[in-house]
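Annex B.
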Amino acid sequence: MKFKATQIAEILNGTIEGIPDVEVDKLSKIEEAEKGSLTFLANPKYTSFIYKTNASICIVAKDFEPTQNVNTTLIKVDEPYEAFSKLLEYYNQVKLHKSGIEQPIFIDETSTYGTEIYIGAFAYIGKNVKIGNRVKIYPNTYIGDNVVIGDDVVLFSGGKIYSECIIGNQVVIHGGAIIGADGFGFAPNNKGVYKKVPQIGNVIVENNVDVGAGTTIDRATLGSTIIREGVKLDNQIQIAHNVEIGKHTVIAAQTGIAGSTKIGENCIIGGQVGIVGHIQIGNNVKIQAQSGIGRNVKDNEVLQGSPALGYSDYYKSYVHFKNLPELVKKLDSLETKHH
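UDP-3-O-acylglucosamine N-acyltransferase: predicted structure tokens.
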């Protein structure tokens, strides 16, 4: 896809200094850009690169005035980073734009779907499924019976949504993610043999949620596992049955959350965090990577370690952790002198 400077300036409401008809067909970092590339300058540290970049077009701030000759066409905007992000989003929309229904697929006759839809080859859509408008369902996807999907949802290749689950508007589910598999429910009988507890609930994913590749969200035993509005989930996260994650919480890869735990709003949880079941985590909590959470957490706490301590307490203690061998030697020496 090729874009002229005039088209880009129109999208970004910017002004051109240079060649209006110059074309670009790729996006690049300013220090790596080649001819035909579009780049941007937002951080003053990178200003020197604008005088030697091979990019055909560079987005800069309105108040940028070059002190040397530049060989690139400038598009001046209010906020270069924000403008470039907007352009990335626009580029992604154009690149991923698909429409129509490919073959072969299976759609049960009891299911319905809205307008401007895309359904890729080898998709399976079960009974009584309701799909909204402008939904994109990529090839090799599975949607079980009685699923409800809102508007502007993207389900990438290999994604699976099990029966009865509800997906809101503007949700993105990446490849290999599984929504609504059985929760890990087993109970031992009097012989110590584990018997499966039926998992008859569902998963509710509210609006504007992103679910990363390979992430699994288990259905509830009873009721619902709930992912609230605006939550962002990285790749390879495990969310167990009856968990609830509050609005606009962000969770990094390989985190595991055990059953029936409730996480508040606007939390930030690092990678490889382990969280036990049946606890409450408050709002605005920050949990550092590889922490283990085994207790209730109050609003605004910042935690690290396993079992997790308050962030500042952890670092104060860590100074002593590193010095433990030396401290032990000193204690041994004192004990020897004492005896």
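The mean pLDDT is 93. The chain is about 15% helix and 30% strand. Further annotation is deferred to the next reporting cycle.
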